[in-house]
Design brief:
isoprene biosynthesis (chains A, B, C, D); two-stranded antiparallel ribbon; 17 helices; Aldolase_TIM (chains A, B, C, D); magnesium (chains A, B, C, D); 12 strands; homotetramer; TIM Barrel; binds flavin mononucleotide
Chain lengths: 348, 348, 348, 348
C-alpha cells in the first residue's frame, strides 16, 4: 500500500467511526455559559442579520462547516453535499486534509467537486502543519489551487499524531513554517486545532507569526483520541488513547483565552446548536465551526443537511433576537454569565 | 376561525396543558438563597405584619396572584375564584392577557367577573407590549376600564412569540410604546416578563421609560417554551422549544439585578412557598407573583385556593418570625446567604 | 390533662420519635471542613490533654452532653445514665427543659436523680426563654437549685414553637429577660438554640446582654421541625414542618459567625464524631454538645453510653494527635481548610 | 513471637491486603488539575527528555518506585523485580521499612537483593522516624549500608501508628532526631509521609531541620487507615480506622503547599498515570512516587512491571509533548488550571 492510499483509506475509516460511535468526550464549556435575556429586543426576528465579514468576505452567518473529509472517492458525495449547503447558505466551509490528494493527484476529485458544487462559497483548503514543514509552501499553494480556496487552514493535531502508531511525532519547525507561509502567501492562513484547543500562549505565538485567524478546535466535541482508540488494535495504544481522551482546553475556555485581541477567531469543538454559536460569538468568536453535527445529515443527503443548517440558523436567530442583537456585532458585545469549572479555568 | 376566537381557544388549551403536564423548567435560584435565622425574634408570630404598600395601595401581603387567564367562557370560574381570593385576602391580582376580549368584546365576561367578585381588590389589567404597539394606548385604557384596574401590566414574552408558528416576531417599538403609555396614562404601568427574566440593562431602560414597577417574570417556574412545545406539532418547532426551554435569567438573579433602585419590583417565576416569598423580599422584591401554584387549587374551587393561600401566608409569617422581621420593611433589610450558581451569576 | 402533664408526656414522645426515626436534616457543614494533618505531632497520643476550662470549671474534655430530657418518670433512667457518664468522665451535661418539673414538682425526680448520680459534675439547668419571660428569674433560680447546677441554659426554639399547634408564638421580651437574668443571677447564663443556629447579629445582642456563653444549636443534626412533623396530625402542620425542616444556620457557619469574640462558645447540632469535635474546636468552639448520638446508647445502658463516649474521646485524641495539638488551646489555634457551601456562607 | 518476627509477618499481610482489596480512599486532587495543551510543541516526541537531576544523581525520569516492602523472605521476589526495573530504567527506588531487618539481620536478604539486582540505581533506605528516635543514627547508617543506599527516607506515619493496637503512639523527638541526622549524616535525608500529606507548616520545620527533600505522601492513594481497618479485629478499632480513612491532605494540595521553596520535593500518593506525574511536576514536584500501581505488576513478574513503567513513561512523554515541554525543567514551569475543592483548599 502506497502512503497516499494508506492516508486515504484511513480517511474513510474515520468517517464511519465518527458516525457509528460515541466519539465525543470532555466538556466544551458552553453549558457553563448563559446568555443574558433581553425582554425588549426592539427588532424583528425575521430581520435579524446573521451576516458576518470574515477575512474580507461577506458570509450570511457565522456557521462554518468545519474541515472533515475528501481524498477518497467514497467521500465525494459527502463533500458535494457539504459544498452545496455552503453555496446555498453562503456560509464558509473547510475541506478535510488535502494531503492524500497532494500525494496522489488521482484522489483530488473529491476536493475539486467541492468548488464545482460551490462556485462562489468561501472555501478553505486544509493541510497539516507537519506536511507544511515537510513539503514547504508549494504544497500549501497547491492545496489552495486545487479548490480555488479563499484561505488555507493549517491544522495542528499533536495529540492525534502522538497516539497513532503511524503518527508523525515530530512537530519541530511548525511555527517557523507557519510564519513563513503567513508572510509570503497570497491567501490568508488560518491555524486550527482539531480537538485540544489553542491556549493563550500558543495564540500569542501565532498572532506574532502573522496568521490571519485562529480556530480554537477545542475539547468537548469530536475527540480524535477517542476515534484513534476505536481504530487501534494494540492494547497499549488503546489505553493511551483512553487516558488522553479528555485531554485539552475546553472550547469555551480556549475561546476566552484567545479572543479579545482584535483578531479573527473561529470557535470549533463541541458546538452543538445555534445557541452554542450565539454564546461563542458573545465570548468573542467571529465564526463557529461545526463538524460532527453536520456529518451525519451530510451522509444522508443534501436535504437533511440543509434542514439541519436551517434549524441551527433558526436557533441562532432566536438567540440573537432574545438578546436583542440585531446583528452579529451587537451579539458579540452582549454580556454573558460564566459559571462552574469554566469560570474557574478562565480565572474569574 | 377569527383571530379573537383563535386567541381565546389557545388560552383554554394553555390552562389544560399547565395543569396536566410538567411545564416547569430551569432553576429559579431560591434554593441557593438561605435566610438568616434569628433566634430572638422579639415579636409575636400572630402580630407579624405582612402588609405592604404598593403603588399607593395597602395590601395585606406581598403575595400577588400573577396574570393567568380570561378571555374564554371556560376560564370564568377560575378567574372568579382567583378574584374572590384577592378580595378575601386583600392581595393583588393580575388578570390574563385581555387581548381576546379587546378584539371581541363578547369575550370580556371572564374579565368583568373578576372585578365583580373583587370589588375592592388591587387588580391589574394585562396587555402584551406588542398589542400596545399595534393598537396604541386606547387599548391599554380599555383594558384598564374593562376591569376597573388599579394598574396595567404590559407583558413581554419574546421567547414565547419567537417559538410559536403564529407568534408575533416583531418587537420593534415596544419600549417607545411603553414610554409613551407610562408618561401619559392615569394608571401606573407595570412591565413584566413571563418566564425569562428582566436583566439589569432592560430594567434600566424601563426605569428611564418611566414605568412604575417591574416584574421579573424569571426563569425557574412555568416555562412557555415548554408549554408551546407540548402544543406544537411541527417537529422543528418542538426541537426549537426544547432547546429554549431553560432559556432566561433565573428569577433570583433577575431580582438581584433589578432591585435596589428604590423602585417597586415584583418577583415572579418559580416562587413556590412562603419561604421563597420571604427570600425574594429579602433580596428586594416588593410583591411576589405566583401563577402555577395557585392555578391548580383555583381550578378545583374557592376553598382549595383559599387554603393554599393560607398556607403560603403561614409559611411567610413563620419565615418572617424566624428572621425577626415584624414587618415587610424589616424583612427587606435582612441579610441572606447566597451560594452556588446564583452566587456566581450575581457576580459575588 | 393539666399543662404540666401535657408537657411531660410530650417529652416522652419526643425521646421515642428521636430514637426510632430519621430526624436529622440539613447539613451541619463539618464535611466542608478539613483539619490540617501534622506529620510531626511531637507528642504522645496517650498524653494528649483534652481538658478544658469552661466558665471557671475544669472539665476533662470538650464533649458536652447536650440538653435532652427529664420531667417524666420514664426518662429517669436515661438521665441517670447520662449523669453517671458525666461524672465518670468529668464532662459537662445539660438536663432537658425543667419546665414540667417546675410546673409540677412531683415530676422533678428525673432531674434530681441527675445530681445524685453526678455529685461533682458540671451540670447545666435548662429553661426556655419564653418560660423565663413568663415566670421570671425565680423559676430560673429554682431550675438551678433543683439540680444544684453550675450554670443555666436558656434555650431558644422559635421554629419548634412556631410550627407546633400548642406552641408559644410570642417571643417578646426574651432578650430583656435574658439580659436581666445575666446581670443579676449568681450562676452563669448560657443561651442556646436547639437546631437553627445563632447568627452573628443575635450573638452580638446576647454578648451585649451579658450572657456567659452561647451554644450554636445549629442546623444539621436533630431537627425539631422534623420531630414535630412526625408528631403532627394536621396536614397543614405536617407540610409546614416539612417546609421548615432544613431551616436554619448550619452549625459550622454559626460557629464561624459567633466565635472569635473571646467569649465561650459551645458548638452543638450535628456533631457526630470526635473529629467533628476537633473541627469545631479549631473553628473556635470551647465545648461541643452532642444529643442524639448519646441518646441511643443512654437508652440502652450505662455501659453502652460509656463506650460511645470512649470512642468519641479516642477519635478526638487521635485528631488532636494528628494535628500536633497537645492540648485544646493548641487545637483551637490550628489551621483548617474550608470548602464548598460552608465556605460561601462564611463569606470566604 | 519476637518483635522482629511480628513486624515481618505484618509486612507480608500488608502486601496481600493491598493487592486484594480496595484500599484507596479520599481524593488526591489531580482530577482538579488540568495541563494547558500546547498545539505547537515544537519538539519531537521521541526526543523528549524526561531525565531529572535529584540530589546530585541523574535519573532517567521522575518516576520513583515508592517504598513498599522487604523484611520477609516472601517479599524478596517482589523487591527484586522492583529493583530490576529501577536498574533497567535508571529510575529511583525506595525500599520498604528496614526495621525488621535491622532488628533481625537474618531478614535482610530481601533488602540486600535490591542492591544486587540494581547495582547502579538510585536507592533509598527506609526507616520510621520513631525507630530513628529509639535507635539513633546508628540504625539509620546501618539501613543505608544494608543496601548501599544513595539516600535515606525517614517515614512519618502517625495515623497508621495511632489506629494500630500495637502502634507506637509517641512521636516525641522525631523532629530533633531528623534534625540531628540531617546535619551529621553523609547521605541525604528525605522525609516522607505515607498517605496523609505534609503541610506547609510541617515542611517549614523540616526544611529548617536541614532535610534534603520532602515526599508529600499525601491523601488519595493507598490508605493505611483502610489497610489497618481490614487487618483489625476489634470493632472499636475498625470504626476508628473507618473514621480516619480519608484523613489527610490531598497530594496535590500538599504539593502546592510545600513546593516553590527551591527544595527538592517528591509527590507521592494517588499518582496513577503519566499524566498525573506531568501534573505533579507542573505543580512543583521533582520526583513522583508510585507504590500501589507498581505493586500489582511487580507481584506478577518483571515483564509486567516493565510494561507498566513503559506505559507510564509513554503517558508522561505524551503529556510533556502536548504541553510543549522538551524536558522536565520546561514542564515544571508550565501553567496549570486548578479547579474544584483543590482550588479552594489551595486558597485560590
Ligand atoms: C470525520 C471528521 C474528519 C475530520 N477531518 C479533519 C481534517 O482533515 N482536518 C482538520 O483540520 N480537521 C478535521 N476534523 C476536525 C474538525 O474540523 C473539528 O475541528 C472537530 O471535529 C471539532 O468539531 P466538532 O466537535 O463539531 O466535530 C475532522 C472532524 C471529523 C468529525
Ligand atoms: C396558565 C398561565 C397563563 C398565563 N397567562 C399569562 C398572561 O396572559 N399574561 C401574562 O403576563 N402572564 C401570563 N402568565 C405568566 C405568569 O403571570 C407568570 O409570570 C409565570 O407563570 C411565572 O410564574 P409561576 O412560575 O408562578 O407560574 C401565565 C401563566 C400561566 C401558568
Ligand atoms: C430527645 C431530645 C430532646 C431535647 N430536649 C431539649 C431540651 O429540653 N432543651 C434544650 O435546650 N434542647 C433540647 N434538645 C436539643 C439538644 O440539646 C441539641 O441542641 C440538639 O439536639 C442538636 O444536637 P444533636 O444534633 O447532637 O442532636 C433535645 C434534643 C433531643 C435529641
Ligand atoms: C504495600 C505497601 C507497603 C508500604 N510500605 C511502606 C514502608 O515500609 N515505608 C514507607 O515509607 N512507605 C510505605 N508505603 C507507602 C508508599 O511508599 C506510598 O507513600 C503510599 O503507598 C502512597 O502511594 P500510592 O498511592 O501510589 O500507593 C507502602 C505502600 C504500600 C502500598
Amino acid at each position: 500500500m502506497k502512503k497516499s492510499e494508506f492516508t486515504s483509506s484511513r480517511k474513510r475509516e474515520h468517517l464511519e467511526i465518527c458516525c457509528e460511535n460515541d466519539i465525543e468526550t470532555g466538556f466544551a464549556g458552553f453549558d457553563d455559559i448563559r446568555l443574558v435575556h433581553n425582554a425588549l429586543p426592539e427588532c424583528k426576528l425575521e430581520s435579524i442579520d446573521m451576516s458576518v465579514r470574515f477575512l474580507g468576505h461577506n458570509l450570511s452567518s457565522p456557521v462554518f462547516i468545519a474541515a472533515m473529509t475528501g481524498g477518497h472517492p467514497d467521500t465525494l458525495q459527502v463533500n458535494k453535499n457539504l459544498a452545496l449547503a455552503a453555496e446555498h447558505f453562503n456560509i464558509g466551509m473547510g475541506v478535510g486534509s488535502q494531503r492524500a490528494a497532494l500525494e496522489n493527484p488521482q484522489l483530488s476529485d473529491s476536493f475539486t467537486a467541492v468548488r464545482e458544487a460551490a462556485p462562489k462559497a468561501f472555501l478553505c483548503g486544509n493541510l497539516g502543519a507537519i506536511q507544511l514543514v515537510e513539503k514547504g509552501p508549494e504544497w500549501a499553494d497547491k492545496a489552495v489551487e486545487m479548490i480555488d480556496a479563499q484561505a488555507l487552514c493549517i491544522h495542528l493535531n499533536p495529540l492525534q499524531e502522538a497516539i497513532q502508531p503511524e503518527g508523525d511525532h515530530d512537530s519541530n519547525g511548525c511555527l517557523k513554517a507557519i510564519d513563513e507561509l503567513s508572510r509570503t502567501s497570497k491567501y490568508p492562513v488560518i491555524v486550527k486545532e482539531t480537538g485540544c484547543g489553542i491556549s493563550r500562549e500558543t495564540a500569542q505565538k501565532l498572532w506574532s507569526a502573522g496568521v490571519s485567524a485562529i480556530d480554537t478546535g477545542g475539547l468537548g466535541g469530536t475527540s480524535w483520541a477517542a476515534v484513534e482508540t476505536l481504530r487501534a488494535e494494540d492494547k497499549n495504544l488503546i489505553n493511551l488513547g483512553r487516558n488522553f481522551s479528555d485531554w485539552g482546553i475546553p472550547t469555551a475556555v480556549s475561546l476566552i483565552e484567545i479572543a479579545g485581541f482584535e483578531k479573527p477567531v473561529i470557535a470549533t469543538g463541541g458546538i452543538r446548536s445555534g445557541t452554542d454559536i450565539a454564546k461563542a460569538v458573545a465570548l468573542g468568536a467571529n465564526l463557529c465551526g461545526m463538524a460532527l453535527p453536520l456529518l451525519k445529515p451530510a451522509m444522508e443527503n443534501s436535504d437533511s443537511l440543509n434542514k439541519a443548517i436551517d434549524n441551527i440558523h433558526r436557533e441562532l436567530a432566536v438567540s440573537m433576537y432574545l438578546t436583542g442583537s440585531k446583528n452579529i456585532t451587537s451579539l458579540s458585545k452582549s454580556r454573558t454569565y460564566i459559571t462552574g469549572i469554566t469560570r474557574q479555568m478562565a480565572g474569574f
